[in-house]
Amino acid sequence: MRRAYKFLLRPTCRQEIVLMACLEDHRQLYNGALEHRRTAYRKAGVSVRYGDQSAELKQIRADDAGGQGRWSFSSQQATLRRLDRAFGVFFARVKAGRGRGYPRFKGRGWFDTVTWPKDGDGCRWNSQPEHPSATFVRLRGIGHVRVHQHQTVKGRVKTVSVKREGARWFVIVSCDDVPADTLRATGAAVGVDLGVAWLVTTSEGEHVANARHQEASASRLADAQRALARKERGSRRRRRVVAQVAALHAKVRRQRLDGAHKAALALVRGYDVIVHEDLRIANMTRSASGTIDTPGRNVAAKSGLNRSILDAGWGVFLTVLAYKAESAGRKLIAVNPANTSRTCAPCGHIAAENRVSQAVFTCTACGHAAHADVNAAVNILRAGLALRDAAGAA
């Protein structure tokens, strides 16, 4: 299996300056390649491909030996591939009838990652293995940068990426052939219902609280955003406040990820089969504002619900749960969420009136009463086991 490890970098002041220069040169390469494609198609109707632009890299590096020529050729090819993938996604959206998402030029705050696609080609993970207590990654043009390695890297290192997040730098190591850390079988299965009041509710009646990290930091974020609005663009004070806003958002992101890891790990350790809803989160959090001709209804309420869903971090949780289940040898099943919250678990009666409130479920046919999320989790588990049995019979 493949796995990515993320570690904090500890660059020196000089190395941080060079890292910024590396990021800036790759950003300019990306923007230049995008302008090349746009101009060629607009002026001559010619579609420029990745292979064409990659072939021109040699001349670009020779003409700018002190700039683009400083960095790894393969990392620059990875940047061109990144642009090529952006165009591929755009054309796929056009083909599907959703013609938005044309690749944009990257501003200084919108390009934060450089990738070396092969360990040993312009980069080297653990470049000083003889060092007794520290880990280093060697990057061409930058040198040996110290890494705060907090866990063991397993498998074969495939790619190395450097990412800037606010004032911090991280290295992301992607590895192939990572051995699975299979856990002992428990013989148990569980259904999982995701919600806003509770992040996770299981079919056995257990609840995992929704910490609402974004809501807890809302007042500080609002103060920082107001201070940002008062600062002059391009000023040193504005850059300082931008860093404060970024640090607050990064803290919320880390808190949400930490909660997702803990909740997912508890499920993976306790159950062999985990069933969850196949949620389309992007569709669920789509704006209800509508258009000028056909304005939406209950826009404020829908906006509040969208914020609550995104603050809960369902997508983060499901992503973490998926790779933890794969690593542990557990089976993860996604089921259609339709009517799981309206169906009575004992009798199967389906009605919107069964859901009395956010937390109360009372069947209008048989009178069964239960916590609404627990009832939904039982239905989710039953649907998942039916899918598993049907797949086994086939």
Automatic annotation (TrEMBL):
Ranges of residues in domain Probable transposase IS891/IS1136/IS1341 = 184-287
Keywords associated with the record? DNA recombination, DNA-binding, Metal-binding, Transposition, Zinc
Gene Ontology molecular function? DNA binding; metal ion binding
Query: Which protein is depicted?
Result: Transposase
Family, per entry: In the C-terminal section; belongs to the transposase 35 family.
Q: Which residues form the Cas12f1-like TNB domain?
A: 314-380
Give the source species: Nonomuraea montanisoli
Q: Where in the numbering of this chain does the Transposase putative helix-turn-helix domain appear?
A: 1-43
Give the GO terms filed under biological process for this record.
DNA recombination; transposition
Keyword Zinc present in the record's keywords: the answer is yes
